[in-house]
């Protein structure tokens, strides 16, 4: 009887969420459909880098050839020890709009990336700033169209949902499930609604109006948050700034991680911060992930009677339809949802336990204690 009612609840919830997500995505406008701006406002594109030699050249080639006449590119080299500095020097000699700032030491009380973004802000006086990652490939018109949309809609903050791809098909399938979980949590289509608590902050593309960013408190306000991009969006929305989201299919692309191992380590970096460094909240999140993502279909197919198995089959069919309707997903990613749920739950749990056991996190070769991250010292 417990399995039956568990199955019924998950069946109704799954169908409802699939419809809700597809409706939500239909409310998000595409970057590609926005008009180009003839006289765009001044813009600084701020990109923090640390040991990015593998992806940096491809990303810089795209950002140095954007269709935007009034901009500068500020790259913050944060204590890199590989060929990053050499690559930046070569690009700076060929592209006068590219400015390189080198950081040799990390100030106390800052995470490296957050400090780099803040230093980028201090290096310009432009009306708009785009905080972007070092592995983003931009369509030449992407930034022009995005800024034009932000100006037309009188926004203070605009994010773009990037097209995330990987050379690993298995990782792509896991990212599809992870994306569903993020969308349910963030509800980005509601970010523009001032009455909704939903917000959006994405490290690949956080476009902010300078005056709003300064009123927000700059990155000084979130200097110890590993999830700085999410926090930027949440706090700006909470403080009443105008926010919206565009979809970047074909216009803003990145290979977030190259394999499952890299993705697992990346999840571990942020997951405990998302739980606000509360072990109880982290364990609750893991249990919720197991019960709602990893276990439903395996339990229903293996232990259910005919009725329960039919419900499981319908759930799987709806997942397949969803995957086919949300590019670049593939239909068979639906079969990987249970594996993805177990994979993510394990890494969320591992991150929480390791962080508590170590008393902090390691990020980019630096250690940050929990007391520091919580602002207790």
From TrEMBL:
Pfam families: Glycos_transf_2. Keywords: Cell membrane, Glycosyltransferase, Membrane, Transferase, Transmembrane, Transmembrane helix. One of its GO terms (molecular function) is glycosyltransferase activity. It comes from the Bacteria. SUPFAM superfamilies: Nucleotide-diphospho-sugar transferases (SSF53448). Residues 44-215 form the Glycosyltransferase 2-like domain. It is found in: Cell membrane. The chain crosses the membrane at residues 6-25, 274-295, 307-325, 331-349. The keyword Signal does not apply. Gene3D superfamilies: Spore Coat Polysaccharide Biosynthesis Protein SpsA, Chain A (3.90.550.10). GO terms for cellular component: plasma membrane. PANTHER family: GLYCOSYLTRANSFERASE, GLYCOSYLTRANSFERASE 2-LIKE DOMAIN-CONTAINING PROTEIN. This is Glycosyltransferase.
């Amino acid at each position: 009887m417990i399995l039956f009612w568990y199955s019924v609840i998950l069946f109704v919830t799954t169908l409802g969420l699939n419809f809700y997500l597809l409706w939500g995505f239909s409310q998000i406008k595409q970057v590609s459909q926005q008009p180009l701006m003839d006289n765009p406002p001044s813009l600084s594109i701020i990109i923090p880098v640390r040991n990015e030699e593998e992806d940096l050249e491809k990303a810089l080639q795209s950002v140095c050839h954007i269709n935007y006449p009034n901009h500068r590119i500020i790259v913050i080299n944060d204590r890199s020890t590989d060929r990053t500095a050499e690559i930046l020097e070569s690009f700076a000699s060929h592209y006068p709009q590219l400015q390189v700032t080198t950081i040799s030491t990390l100030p106390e009380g800052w995470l490296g990336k957050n400090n780099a973004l803040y230093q980028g802000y201090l290096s310009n006086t432009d009306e708009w700033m785009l905080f972007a990652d070092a592995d983003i490939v931009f369509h030449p018109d992407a930034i022009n169209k995005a800024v034009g949309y932000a100006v037309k809609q009188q926004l203070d903050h605009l994010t773009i949902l990037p097209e995330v791809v990987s050379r690993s098909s298995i990782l792509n399938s896991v990212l599809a499930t992870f994306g569903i979980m993020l969308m349910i949590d963030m509800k980005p289509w509601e970010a523009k609604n001032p009455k909704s608590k939903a917000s959006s902050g994405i490290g690949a593309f956080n476009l902010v109006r300078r005056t709003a960013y300064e009123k927000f408190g700059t990155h000084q306000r979130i200097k110890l948050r590993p999830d700085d991009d999410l926090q930027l969006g949440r706090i700006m929305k909470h403080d009443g700034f105008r926010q919206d989201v565009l979809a970047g299919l074909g216009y803003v692309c990145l290979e977030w991680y190259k394999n499952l191992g890299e993705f697992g380590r990346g999840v571990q970096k942020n997951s405990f911060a998302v739980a606000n460094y509360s072990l109880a909240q982290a364990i609750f999140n893991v249990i919720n992930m197991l019960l709602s993502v990893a276990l439903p279909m395996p339990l229903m197919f293996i232990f259910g009677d005919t009725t329960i198995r039919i419900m499981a089959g319908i759930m799987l069919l709806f997942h397949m339809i969803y995957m086919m309707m949300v590019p670049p997903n593939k239909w068979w990613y639906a079969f990987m949802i249970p594996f993805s749920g177990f994979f993510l739950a394990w890494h969320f749990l591992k991150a929480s336990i390791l962080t508590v056991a170590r008393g902090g996190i390691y990020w980019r070769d630096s250690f940050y204690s929990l007391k520091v991250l919580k602002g207790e010292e």
